Amino acid sequence: MNIFVGNLAPETTEVQLTDLFKAFGQVKSVQVMREMFSGASKGFGFVEMPGKAHSLSAIAALDGKDLNGKPLRVNEAMARGSGMRHR
């Protein structure tokens, strides 16, 4: 299941998100979306977890959780064309 993670602090890394989500199950991939030229975080990213039950547990537990001083917005990502968006 693909999971949208929003309201990321600029310093949040893929490693931090992996560590946060792997407490709920296997993490297949993590991507923090970044500006093409500056490399600065866009403030959101995506986590892919293979199990639906583990994904839903992670969403329930992590939505609103503080990470680097900001409350995360976590929900199921919905496919839209070739990209992903959140619900």
Automatic annotation (TrEMBL):
Domain of life assignment: Bacteria
Family annotation (InterPro entries): Nucleotide-bd_a/b_plait_sf, RBD_domain_sf, RRM_dom
Annotated PROSITE patterns: RRM
Single annotated GO MF: RNA binding
Pfam family, one: RRM_1
RRM domain span: 1-79
SUPFAM superfamilies to which the protein is assigned, alphabetical: RNA-binding domain, RBD
Signal sequence interval, chain numbering: none
Matches recorded under PANTHER family: RRM DOMAIN-CONTAINING PROTEIN (PTHR15241:SF304), TRANSFORMER-2-RELATED (PTHR15241)
Protein name, as recorded: RNP-1 like RNA-binding protein
Record organism: Candidatus Accumulibacter aalborgensis
Upper taxonomic lineage: Bacteria, Pseudomonadati, Pseudomonadota, Betaproteobacteria, Candidatus Accumulibacter
